[in-house]
Recover the amino acids of this structure.
């Protein structure tokens, strides 16, 4: 699961606070992350489409909601606020507030997509899917709480990657049977 690993590695360098000195890097970091964040929706969709078409559609819709609303967070709080701070402009508080509200909607959709997909894998693979389920859902929740800030957000990305790897491995014996 390459997208969460890449996001986690990039997140290690995410400044803890938006300051004037960090503002240019803050902005550029979010430009790089912008096309990567939506890829987090692929894991739930890939797992559910292998199990059940209806669940795959629900995971796809939840992934779409996540991608739209979390991208809004990234554009407003990451790129917009970073640009304002870099230009010595005010208004970052307004951008952060709006971004947080929109990002929360996206994050809840991502948690829902992960929970739906993990539930599908649990139904097929049974207890073999429990560790991957815990890591995936816990990682998605940690991402909602910590974005990609070190350490919580970065570790959440790595948990999502490990969780999806374990869920896909749990499916292998079930598919063979």
């Amino acid at each position: 699961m390459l997208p969460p690993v890449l996001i986690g590695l990039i997140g290690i360098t995410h400044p803890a606070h938006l300051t004037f000195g960090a503002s240019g890097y803050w902005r550029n970091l979010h430009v790089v992350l912008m096309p990567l964040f939506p890829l987090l929706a692929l894991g739930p969709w890939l797992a559910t489409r292998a199990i059940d078409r209806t669940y795959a559609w629900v995971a796809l819709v939840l992934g779409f909601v996540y991608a739209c609303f979390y991208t809004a967070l990234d554009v407003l709080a990451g790129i917009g606020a970073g640009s304002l701070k870099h230009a010595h402009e005010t208004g970052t508080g307004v951008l952060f507030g709006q971004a947080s509200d929109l990002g929360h909607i996206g994050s809840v959709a991502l948690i829902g997509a992960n929970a739906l997909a993990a539930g599908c894998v649990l139904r097929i693979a049974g207890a073999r899917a429990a560790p991957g389920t815990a890591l995936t859902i816990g990682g998605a929740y940690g991402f909602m709480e910590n974005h990609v800030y070190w350490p919580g957000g970065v570790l959440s990305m790595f948990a999502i990657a490990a969780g999806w790897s374990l869920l896909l491995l749990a499916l292998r014996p079930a598919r063979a049977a």
In short: The chain is about 80% helix and 0% strand.
